[in-house]
Amino acid sequence: MQQDWRRRVGAARILVVGDVMLDRYWFGAVERISPEAPVPVARVQREQDRLGGAANAALNVTSLGAQATLLSVVGTDEPGRRLQQLLAESSIRSALHEDAGLRTTLKLRVIARQQQLLRMDFETTPDHELLAVQGARYAAELPGHDAVLFSDYGKGGLAHVGEMVQAARAAGRSVLVDPKGRDYSRYAGATLITPNRAEFSEVAGDWRDEAELESRAQRLREDLHLQAVLVTRAEEGMTLFSAAGRLHVPAAAREVFDVSGAGDTVIATLAALLGAGAGLEDAVRAANRAAGIVVGKQGTASVSAAELWPGE
């Protein structure tokens, strides 16, 4: 049975909607302290740009062999042009809208000796007129996809996510949300949301034991009319809560090197597999394995089908 949906992954079409960003890395060496202030001096030796945010989620979808369309907004600045160049070099189908008044989100990280010394963020928020244009493109793209993945980084690109969720569910599509903020009512009706431990605690409150965690998760699921809630719990693994009960999957990571973008990998794997017809439990187990692989890599990264299913 598993082989049936495995063979269909290549035909799965995932619409990825959300906040895109450019992840820029400056790699260098630190050999002295600045005479101007008590800070390390990094001598930059190499630069690297990677797709970030929703773009990284889309990259993870295609890395598994599925098809991805990325719907978002970028500026006409250098990071926006670079992001579009990276997309052109990938197998992601781009549906980006450009806006001269928007500053493309850029996360600049300075790395030395495999350690992050500093991160600088550059960003602005898109206006509502621009988001209305995005909504029209979303309505046009929706019928041609099997599932919708919303990647919410709280940058303003998903101001109308509630309407988008309802439209996708009315069209019979699976809807997966990587949430942000304290108001999850915006995601009501989604198939699945994937908060991490801290995000879930911020919305549902702390828990003393597994029974209380399950109670809070099931209450949230029922209140928002969700099919399931998946709480990712770092070294504790991840726990799925659905009408069928609770499924806990222990962490698969052998060594944690960098957790950047791990949430993108989890939800992208879920979307690709559900889009191919996999059951929710099979998709969660695969997403857990994918997370275990990606945290062993430096920076935002993706997982290939060969890594996830070696020997096939």
From TrEMBL:
Coiled-coil regions listed in the entry: none
Name of one Pfam family that matches: PfkB
Listed GO CC annotations: cytosol
CDD domains recorded: RfaE_like
Keyword annotations of the record: Kinase, Transferase
Key word Kinase present: yes
Domain Carbohydrate kinase PfkB positions: 13-302
InterPro entries: PfkB_dom, RfaE_dom_I, Ribokinase-like
MF (Gene Ontology): heptose 7-phosphate kinase activity; heptose-1-phosphate adenylyltransferase activity; phosphotransferase activity, alcohol group as acceptor
PANTHER family per record: BIFUNCTIONAL PROTEIN HLDE (PTHR46969)
Entry protein name: D-glycero-beta-D-manno-heptose-7-phosphate kinase
Lineage: Bacteria, Pseudomonadati, Pseudomonadota, Gammaproteobacteria, Lysobacterales
